[in-house]
Amino acid sequence: MNLFIGSLIAIFLSLDVFVPLRLIMLLRPVRNRRLWRGIVAVLGGSALGFCIILLMHRTILGSSRGPLPRWFVASLFIWHFLILPLLSIGLFFDLFVRAGRAIWNFVRMRGEQKPAEPISPIPESILSRRYFLLAAAVTVPPVATVSLAGIAMAQLGKFRIKPYDLIVAGWPAELDGYTITVIADVHVGAFSTQKMLDDIAEASNQLRSNLVLLAGDLVNISLADLPSGLDMVQRLDSRDGIYMIEGNHDVIEGADRFDRAVRRRGVDLLTDQVVTVNARGVPFQLLGTVWTNDDFRDESVSDTAALREPGVFAMMLAHHPHSWDAAAAAGIPLVISGHTHGGQIMLTDHIGGGPLRFKYWSGLYQKPNSQLIVSNGLGNWFPLSVGAPAEILKLTLHPKI
Question: Which DSSP symbol is given to 72?
């Protein structure tokens, strides 16, 4: 278990303890407090048990072979990555306000040096309002979690075909109308099904594109799911080949292990490499980068771009869309990426997870000498998506005249 996952679980453990304890303290003055406290204890204990199970058996959440039902795993993900943080923020804010009010009252009383006044009973209207708010804080989060998990399960395996007609500088005139299918972020694992993989292969083959590119994250976490993903890849049809690159999830259990397993199956994997594709007797080059951290991403892009053959058109497959800046600087006219899941949770086209985390997160981006296509991808590590539909891309390339 790497440092990031360990830190994340530690945070979840802390919040799973803090939230129930804080709610139990707040429930002291309300009616039927034993009932409400019992509900909080059961819900809090269940959430805490999830983190303990995760510590013991990571593959439960990392593989489609895990013993827990998908809807249950989806509920746990939605609770810990969405509902729990929002509830914790609210409770921390309430705690901060209460502490500030207590300090202010203490300072004011000391300054005025007045005898303490008898404590008046809290009005019934205030008690009723507190009761309502606390009841909502206890009941709404689990109901929202289960409801959102139901929505997530309804989304599972659904995707669209999104076409792009691109006018690309330097693209050979003889290849006008050349088509490329882009499959990204399948994330074979806890939130994929065999039907989903079958549907992806069938939909891709129906497009009858000249070339099929896979832009990384074929698996979610566990390499035990890689054979299922490669079975899907080997069902894909393409006249000029099928090529793929690594994504960050592919290499969680080791880049070397992933690369060896892919190549043993005869699938063309590009790791800071270039391949020449001969289409209709006209060559162009495809560059593929490895997954690396931010510090070495530009170096990987630049080193791979340096492998180009002068005078031959070259496009790049790079999992992280931020690779585009270095690729454009190196004169690469077209870059294809994934990784962002379209922002995952998008309230509008420009408000949501996409712009909060990425410079480029979905669709087509253009610079004077280069273009970037970012796919929303097909699968997820997090089960719920809002305003970022899963997709297969079909690119049709035209020369700039």
Answer: H
Question: b/e map of 83-119 (b: 16 or more CB within 10 Å)?
Answer: bbeebbeebeeeeeeeeeeeeeeeeeeeeeeeeeeee
pLDDT over 60 at 384, yes or no: yes
Question: What is the residue-wise DSSP string for 137-181?
Answer: HHHHHHHHHHHHHHHHHHHTT--EEEEEEEEETT--GGGTTEEEE
Say yes or no to pLDDT of 57 above 60.
Answer: no
Q: Which residues have CB under 8 Å from 81's CB, separation 6+?
A: 382
Please check the confidence at residue 117 and state whether its pLDDT lies above 80: no
Distance CA 10, CA 16 (A): 10
Supply the Cα-derived Rg of the chain in whole angstroms. 26
Note the pLDDT tens digit of each residue in 323-380: 999 999 999 999 999 999 999 999 998 999 999 999 999 999 999 999 999 999 999 9
Please name each of the domains of the chain with its CATH number. 3-154 (no CATH), 158-399 (3.60.21.10)
How far is Cα 221 from Cα 242, in angstroms, rounded to an integer?
23
**Sign, CA torsion 117/121/123/128:** positive
Nearest in space to 318 (alpha carbons), one of 331, 294, 343, 335:
335
Q: Are 320 and 341 in contact (CB under 8 A)?
A: no
Could you tell me how far CA 382 lies from the centroid of its own chain? 6
Amino acid identity for residue 338 in this structure: G
* Residues 278, 281, 286: CA angle, nearest 5 degrees: 20
